[in-house]
Design a protein that fits this description.
Blueprint (H helix, E strand, L loop, with lengths): L9 E4 L2 E5 L6 E7 L2 E6 L5 H21 L8 H12 L5 H16 L10 H13 L7 H18 L7 H5 L18
Antiparallel strand pairs: 1-2, 2-3, 3-4
Helix pairs in contact: 2-3
């Protein structure tokens, strides 16, 4: 066991531990992979079950590190899947799906962390898109595609709670029944 491990920490294999969480009844995975520390709940109260889950998580962490995926990152493919699932029963689904498949995936498809997509990268996409055909697209077409991309990024960032200063600026006639699509990217 490592020199910092407490007596309640249980070693599963060399470098992989489970320990009880102080704020939860569940066991927590704790490990190091290529010099990076990973912690994640096993969502298990039973120690033996937690060990099995911890092994799965450990190999998942190792695979991600080997593939160059940072912990907590979301690939463009995962964003696409989640976004399309969230709008699959809306009228705009087919247009959005076709736009993503035809234009965004060929350009952004290899992105392993959407956090790495900068404004400059989006501008590069627009230049690529303009040069893709001999006759220039109408500005309206690019605006619609930009709207789809903006909606995808808005989907990726969960809504933040309204703070007191923002709340004081809301008018009394505004409905609080805004519906936010469920986000399950992590």
């Amino acid at each position: 066991m490592g020199r910092f491990a407490k007596s309640t920490t249980v070693q599963v294999i060399d470098g992989l531990y489970v320990k009880p969480s102080s704020n939860s009844p569940y066991w927590q995975t704790y490990c190091h992979v290529d010099g990076k520390t990973f912690r994640k709940s096993t969502k298990c109260k039973d120690l033996e079950q937690a060990k099995l889950v911890a092994l799965e998580q450990y190999y998942h962490f190792k695979r991600n590190v080997a593939d160059g995926v940072e912990p907590g990152s979301v690939s463009f493919q995962k964003l696409t899947d989640g976004f399309l699932k969230s709008i699959e029963h809306e009228g705009k689904f087919e247009y959005h799906r076709d736009t993503i498949e035809r234009h965004f995936k060929p350009f952004f498809g290899d992105v392993k962390d959407i956090g790495s997509i900068t404004t400059a990268k989006v501008m590069e996409y627009l230049q690529h898109r303009r040069s893709k055909v001999e006759t220039p697209q109408q500005q309206q077409t690019l605006n619609r595609e930009n709207t789809v991309l903006r909606q995808m990024f808005a989907y990726a960032v969960p809504p933040q709670p309204v703070d007191a200063t923002q709340a004081s600026n809301l008018s009394a006639g505004v409905s609080n029944s805004s519906v936010f699509r469920g986000r399950s990217l992590s």
